[in-house]
Amino acid sequence: MRFRYTAWLVVKLLAAVLITAAIYAAAQVKTVQDTFDGILIGFWMLPMLFVGMVFLAVRDQRFRCRACGRRLRMPVAEGNYGGMLLDHPGTEYVCPYGHGKLRVEVWISAGEPPEWTQYGDMWEELFTPRAAGPTRSAPPE
Ligand SMILES: [Zn+2]
Q1: CA 3 to CA 138: how far, in whole Å?
Q2: CA of 97 to the centre of ligand 1 (A)
Q3: CA 52 to ligand 1 centroid distance, Å
């Protein structure tokens, strides 16, 4: 299940590499140029653009479902900003397909990584055949 989550990160990083390489190729920037523009663009601007795209890809990955790779939705504020020891403030996101939830702490010294809670298959009990239970009878007339 975690394959899609990892595959999305790989696709985004490959896109960052390809975009940067395409700009290098389109601008015909050589890595070793002694002109001011060549050094400015080839040595400073494009690497900064690449690092920015990698940063955005990793930041976007943080708010994706660990099972299916979709963006997490429905943020709910939890906790109490006055609670210094217990009940820390945070935001909770859920996967729209019910795979799990992510709790991101909003805390000054929040060094802990976001907590992912995996849910079981919520549709499983709907599709399992019922054992011999009460049979449905016709409604009374
Ligand atoms: Zn999901």
Answers
A1: 48
A2: 5
A3: 26
Distance from residue 71's CA to the centre of ligand 1 (Å)? 8
> Per this entry, what is the length of the chain?
141
Instruction: Report how far ligand 1's centroid is from the alpha carbon of 61 (Å).
Output: 13
Separation of CA 136 and ligand 1 centre (Å)? 35
- Tokens 């019910």 sit at which residue? 98
Q: Global pTM?
A: 0.70
Ligand 1 center to residue 44 CA distance, Å?
A: 38
Domain boundaries, the chain: 2-62, 73-127
pLDDT reading at 49 higher than 90: yes
- Give residue-wise pLDDT tens across range 73-130: 999 998 888 877 788 888 999 999 888 999 988 876 656 788 898 887 766 777 777 7
66 touches 99 (CB < 8 A): yes
Residues contacting residue 57 through CB under 8 Å, at least 6 positions apart: 9, 12, 13, 15, 16
For every residue of 68-102, which 3-state class applies, written as one string? CCCECEEEEEECCCCCCCCCCCEEEEECCCCCEEE
